[in-house]
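Internal ticket #5521
Category: modeling
Description: The requester needs a full-assembly model to guide mutagenesis choices. All entity lines are attached below as received. Residue total reported by intake: 384.
Assigned to: D.W.
Attached entities:
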Amino acid sequence: MFKKTDDKTESIIGPSTKIDGNFKSNGNVIVAGEIIGKFVTTQALRVEEGARISADIEAREAVIAGEINGNLLIENHLDILSSAKIQGDIKTISISVQQGASINGKCTMGGSSINDKKQE
Amino acid sequence: MYFYLYDSFLQEKRYIKKLAEIEGRLIDLMIQGKIIKLNILSHIKELIYSAVRAGAETVVVLGDDKTISQAIASVVNLDITLGIIPLGRKNSLGKLLGIPKGLKACEILAKRIKERIDVARVNGNYFAFCLKALSPYIKIFSPDNQYCLSLLSPKMEVSVYNFKPSGVKLKANQPMADFFIPQDGYMELVVKDLSCPINKILFKKKGEIGSYTILPFKHIRLEPSVLKKDVRLLLDGYKIIKAPVEIDVLAGKISVIVGRERQF
């Protein structure tokens, strides 16, 4: 279990809730609802099956089982599960994709691509 | 110096023996003090302020959840320690602070384990335990309006908790923080999905992660999501105020005597 510190809070966006706007977090986030806008976390993101995100996403690492309509910038590992549907470009260091997942977009891997994107 | 504040319902006959036992035990433990009795005409805040002016360093409240919550809201800006002796029918707050009901609370008071806990300020009122929205027609705004959280179903319940509410259980294998720590400078906004069938089953026992939205915060704003809809908020189970409201968490604002069995 992670301990919550002053600059690191954890969040759960449950089903039947929707976030509109610019969501920024310094902790791990689980999304089971909807997000529209922009999503940034310095820690891990888990998008549950049934969740829908229409936003560009930045995270340290991510596990995706829901629907994403937007670009993903993942600093470490990206895990795409079989129920995932991604419509957007992916930039990450490493990736694993389960059979059945749907990805429509460009996938770029490696450290330099992440740094280039972050400098933009 | 100790001041003991008796709730008005303790004047009922059935509490005479209990109070005599408690007073005797306090003398044994050498923590007896001046006794003030609440009545319909007196206000708890005024009594606590007059006790402080008379030199009180520790104010002990004897009563139920409502009185304890009122006392906590009254001592926010005072340099005193609050103790409680839970008595009466509704006593869930004592449990959170690790204080048993009645006579056994005297031992805890004598040990004087003090902890500072967070309270929240909401439109000039204070609460330390829970705020509950009595209507689902509500929107939640983050500081600087960065984002807005809205509910997609009317069968939902919005609350703010400082201590862990019963029924919310997080899975042990999820890499999640320890929520509901009343000393971390945050409170948690909790949205329960009451329409979710899994909740209907689990609410009878224990909830599950994913059925809830849990957002720790230091500052948020709650507004009615529909114009002309009256959204009422219940503070610590006794005071009703109307939205829109701004909620600010004040870290470690009050000092309370707690027991070893406290739930934080």
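Resolution: model delivered.
Comment from assignee: The radius of gyration of chain A is 13 Å.
Ticket closed.
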